[in-house]
Amino acid sequence: MGETTNIFETHFANQQTVFLDRNAISPHFMPNKFPFREKQIHEISQIFSTNLNQKKSDNLFLYGKTGTGKTSVTRLVLRQLLEFAGKQNLPINGTYINCRNHNSKYRVLSKVVKELFPEENFLGYSAAFIYDKVMDGVNKKKTNYLIVLDEIDKVKDLDDLVYALTRSNDELENGSVSVVGISNNVFFKERLDPRTKSSLCQHEMIFPPYNAEELNKILDERAELAFKPKAIEESAINLAAAFAAKESGDARTAVMLLLKAGELADKKQETSVQDVHVQKAKKKVEEELILNMIATLPKHQQLLLHTIASLSMHKKSQQRITGTIEELPLFSGEIYEEYAKNARNVKEQPVSARWYREYISELEMFGLILTAASGHGIRGNTRLIRLSFDAKKIKEALEKQFENA
Ligand SMILES: Nc1ncnc2c1ncn2[C@@H]1O[C@H](COP(=O)(O)OP(=O)(O)O)[C@@H](O)[C@H]1O
Ligand SMILES: [Mg+2]
Q1: Which of 107, 127, 377, 398 has its CA 20 to 30 A from that of 160?
Q2: What predicted TM-score, i.e. pTM, was given to this entire model?
Q3: How far apart are the CA of 71 and the centre of ligand 1, in A?
Q4: Given 3-state DSSP classes, what are the helix, strand and coil percentages for the chain, each rounded to the nearest 5?
């Protein structure tokens, strides 16, 4: 074979790019500094540090909206604790588990047992066996074990899991097990079974949304790593921060906006990222935001939203037949009836009317629906409900969720 040029080489060489290190602006990037989270980092490390004295640390529950730094901060503190413990030869172990992928007691314990016994294979063993094996591992290692359960609301049998992990401390002769739960759903805590709540929330901590100024600073630091000098306009960063602050106070959205804006600038082969790229990126990111939000909803809120989307689509097609143009809202009562039917169809017990009203106000708080009182006349005094986004898109996104569940 002679000196052939790879066909991608010239293509690659001729590409102009605004990025210096594109990875630094991806949502998976782990910065080593988290401005505006000093307090949370301090509190978490205080709690974790009990393990350094070979005592069980308190369980901890962290919550806040998506993109407020919960996952990154917790992983950072856990990693540093394990590093330190390793150097000092202290028996501390820990595992980070995302419950989106490990959504049952069985799956969580299977993940822990694999960490404790990496050489062995536990496929097909019973839950009781795996639990005993975890106990055995912790006991023999005499270790203080931290289990981080991220997106903990996705665990189907959470009460059982928390109960088992809490109880384990009474059975263990040596070592301990502590749980750190994290949730993107700010209402989740209120729905926990009282016993689970008191076990899990020995300490709790909120991660508030970021304001525009804070997001600006976060983005400035990232942009410096990610973009070539002068390859991004200050005003573009301001715009991205302002948009993310207004929308959700979410650092992930802010970072994604800059990444997408950079990609758009590259696509047009421009030498710097400008406001117009951020504005275009905004459209793409908005959709992802909605889809992310849908993913954090509990099962029954998803079912409810699916019902609202289906009914809206149905009404729309009726309108087309009758020729009316004005979009008709749905009645609260008709939605509840239909939701209850749909829930039963998938073998779920529908929530009570009281919870239903609670769920409706939460969906409204998330901006997914709009509600209004009907005033007098229309069926007494009922609530009118309208979807805030395209019904078809919402319905499809939910169906994807159901498939993966
Ligand atoms: N204070 C911060 N400083 C820098 N980057 C941050 C900060 N908070 C969040 N981020 C970034 O925002 C993104 C989302 O953070 P993440 O920890 O996943 O949030 P959550 O788990 O609350 O949804 C990540 O890319 C993370 O690095
Ligand atoms: Mg997270």
Answers
A1: 398
A2: 0.83
A3: 7
A4: 60, 10, 30
